[in-house]
Design brief:
- It is a single chain.
- 27% of the residues lie in helices and 29% in strands.
- The protein has 15 helices and 31 strands.
- Strands 3, 7, 8, 9, 10, 11, 12, 21 and 24 form a 9-stranded mixed β-sheet that branches. Strands 16-14-15-17-20 form a 5-stranded mixed β-sheet. It has a 5-stranded mixed β-sheet with strand order 28-27-29-30-31, with helices on both faces.
- The structure holds one RNA strand of 79 nucleotides.
RNA sequence: CGGGGCGUAGCGCAGUUAGGUUUAGCGCGCAGCGUUCGGGACGCUGAGGUCGGAGGUUCGAAUCCUCUCGCCCCGACCA
């Protein structure tokens, strides 16, 4: 491709709307163009890179036993009602009506459709294990698109779905995908780590996310500096420390005028925060619930939402709290009735807690579970923070930010049961298929690759995803000798199977070099009067500082060494 | 949806506070000619704007008022 003919102009200045590095570079390189919030056109350079990423993914999916197919974007809305996920996705689901006024949804993901395909086509245990995948456009009406290609409303996703006869089969499929994903990231020049994750609207049990460490990432990762524990902060747990055992003391009412927050109460009574129980009120699908947790911890709303199995969760407002007869600032489960109480298991770690007395300006000392109160649900709903203890080795946890470039789930029978996708096992029993699903956002992967592979001058493409291998730079094109030598070299390189971006423009050296750096092809070759004097060209790797002079006849072999056979 | 910011030429901006010499400017980029030519060269000439949109106030609106649309950033959601 000739730069003089390439569609998409490089920009000298950074467009103001871009804040993340990948967004800035994609815009400056003339690779993407925004149409509206979270909706982009991919210009030729970006499109080539995206296709290369797809090809890497396709190869790994096929190698793991996947079969590529293609499902529709346009899906009957009833299918989403059948699975109940019209509510789980809520406004995130793009919907429309056809001419007969039938409601349709633009697919945000394809579990419903694939499950339907499976129930029509899988009959026997002989038909599994089965892995089906596609590269396809997803639509999600995200509340807030951001970061260029990091979070958009229309994007291409590779989604693979596995079907197995039993849990062991699922484990095997899951492991295959885990490995395939690691291969993909490594081939795309990405350092991605697998972390434990919440399964969100997709549903299911085990789940891992692949994170690319980046300051601009949307997710917080909690990880152990000592062992290999790593999890999304939504999912992370910690070893909650149990204080020294003390004898159980009798309940005692104390006046705590003006003290409402945990901080104030703890200070007033001169006890540590971990010696108090906090009360928080939530509205879960309209029902008021009482949440209690040890005073030194915070509630993780994702865990709470999963525990309550509700779709809408928010902090209750003052009116709702008053209406329920709760005393904000002095509430506790002691003596409480008629309201659902959810407790974090931290309340079993410790004794003689200070809790609210359910009357203004009054607290109780020495509350103990279960002696003094009961709860409806006891589980882990605590937010894990950097500085907490690792759940595996009890060393200190650390945190960092990351971009989620892939997510894999063990779905189990969530979908196959709801949609009755069954098979006959060896004994002739009808059983639901055991499913898994595995997704990668292609554009996001591209953005992450740039986040991790750039310098102040521009992109530094890893070879497998580079739009072109070589940036061929002709300096002094008005010199016929240079021009014809460059043309000849361009033709030869392409003949030898290299993908070449040929800068044939009548621009100054500075302009060409800066564009070469910005566009970031792995190899830059310069042809000029100077190099021709010694029948050579100059070769520079984008990732290195040094330039080397190569005799033209040796160039082909040198490039093969660098880029692999063309 | 809550909070913050912004819409003036392809990109980056000034002008808006105090309405009128602004037929709306500047830099980059773009077109033509000439000189340059190994890290974003220079000169001359030129094209390009219904100042996001609609209403209103006024003799007069980019500037004031009302409504509206769009975009970015921070939070609640996800590949």
């Amino acid at each position: 491709m000739r730069v003089s003919r390439l569609f998409g102009k490089t920009l000298r200045e950074v467009p103001t709307e871009a804040e993340t590095v990948s967004h800035q570079l994609l815009l400056r390189a003339g690779m993407i163009q925004q149409l509206s919030a979270g909706v982009y056109s991919y210009l030729p350079l970006a499109w080539r890179a995206l296709r290369k990423i797809e090809q890497v993914i396709r190869e790994e999916m096929d190698a793991a036993g996947g079969q590529e197919l293609r499902m529709p974007v346009l899906q009957p809305f009833e299918m989403w009602e059948e699975s109940g996920r019209d509510l789980a996705f809520g406004k995130g689901l793009f919907t429309l009506r056809d001419r007969r006024d039938r409601r349709l949804a633009l697919g945000p993901t394809h579990e419903e459709v694939i499950t339907d395909l499976a129930r029509r086509n899988v009959r026997s245990y002989r038909d599994v294990p089965l892995m089906l995948y596609q590269m396809q456009t997803k639509f999600r009406d995200e509340p807030r698109p951001r970061g260029g290609l990091v979070r958009v409303r229309e994007f291409t996703m590779k989604d693979l779905y596995s079907f197995d006869a039993d849990e062991d089969g699922l484990d095997l499929s899951y492991q295959k995908m885990l490995q395939a994903y690691k291969n993909i990231y490594a081939r795309c020049g990405l350092n991605a780590v697998a972390v434990e994750a919440d399964s969100g609207a997709i549903g299911g049990k085990d789940s891992h996310e692949f994170m690319v460490i980046a300051e601009t990432g949307e997710d917080e990762i909690i990880y152990c500096g000592t062992c290999d524990y790593a999890a999304n902060s939504e999912k992370a747990t910690s070893a909650k420390i149990r204080p020294e055992e003390e004898p159980l003391l009798p309940l005692e009412e104390v006046a705590t005028p003006g003290a409402k927050t945990i901080e104030e109460v703890a200070n007033f009574l001169d006890v540590s925060r971990s010696h108090t129980l906090k009360a928080v009120f939530y509205s879960a699908d309209g029902e008021l619930v009482f949440v209690t947790i040890r005073g030194d911890l915070e509630v993780n709303e994702i865990k709470l939402k999963n525990t309550l199995k509700c779709t809408d969760l928010r902090l209750a407002n003052d009116d709702e709290v008053q209406e329920a007869g709760l005393v904000a600032g002095a509430a506790s489960p002691v003596g409480l009735s008629g309201i659902k109480v959810i407790a974090d298991d931290s309340i079993t770690l410790g004794q003689n807690f200070v809790v609210g007395a359910n009357k203004p300006d009054t607290h109780l000392k020495n509350a103990n579970y279960p002696r003094d109160f009961n709860v409806d649900i006891m589980t882990d709903i605590a937010l894990t923070l950097a500085g907490d203890r690792c759940p595996r080795c009890e060393r200190t946890l650390l945190s960092t930010r990351g971009i989620e470039v892939g997510h894999i789930f063990k779905l189990g029978t969530v979908f196959s049961q709801r949609q009755e996708a069954c098979f006959l096992d060896q004994e002739g029993n009808q059983k639901p298929l055991i499913m898994g699903c595995y997704g990668i956002g292609i554009g996001r992967l591209l953005a992450a690759a740039i986040e991790q592979n750039h310098d102040e001058k521009g992109i530094i493409w890893p070879v497998p995803v580079a739009p072109y291998h070589i940036y061929l730079c002709a300096l002094g094109t008005d010199n016929p000798e240079v021009a014809s030598a460059a043309e000849k070299l361009y033709a030869e390189l392409e003949q030898n199977g290299f993908e070449v971006l040929f800068d044939d423009r009548a621009e100054s050296a500075g302009v060409k070099f800066n564009d070469a750096d910005l566009l970031g092809m792995p190899v830059r070759i310069v042809v000029s009067q100077r190099t021709l004097k010694s029948s050579s060209v100059e070769l520079k790797l984008r990732s290195e500082k040094e330039v080397e002079s190569i005799p033209i006849e040796a160039l082909n072999n040198r490039l093969k060494l660098q880029l692999g056979p063309g």
